[in-house]
Amino acid sequence: MTKKKIYQEILQASTKLGLTSFGGPTAHLGYFREEYVEKRKWLDDKVYADLVALCQFLPGPASSQVGISIGMLRGGLIGGILSWIGFTIPSVLLLMLFAWSIMQTGSFDSGWIQGLKIVAVAVVAQALLGMSKSLTPDKPRITVAVIAASLALLIPTAWGQISIILLAGLFGVFFYRKEAVPEAVDIPLSFGKKAGILAWILFFGLLVLLPVFRPIIQQTWFSIVDIFYRVGSIVFGGGHVVLPMLEREVVPTGFLGEEAFLAGYGAAQAVPGPLFTLSGYLGQFMGGFSGAAIAVVAMFLPSFLLLVGTLPFWSIIRTKPRIQAALKGVNAAVVGILLAALYDPVFTSAVTEMKDFVLVLVSFTLLVVYKMAPWLVVLVTAVIGALQYAFWG
Question: According to the model, what pLDDT value does residue 292 have?
Answer without folding.
Answer: 95
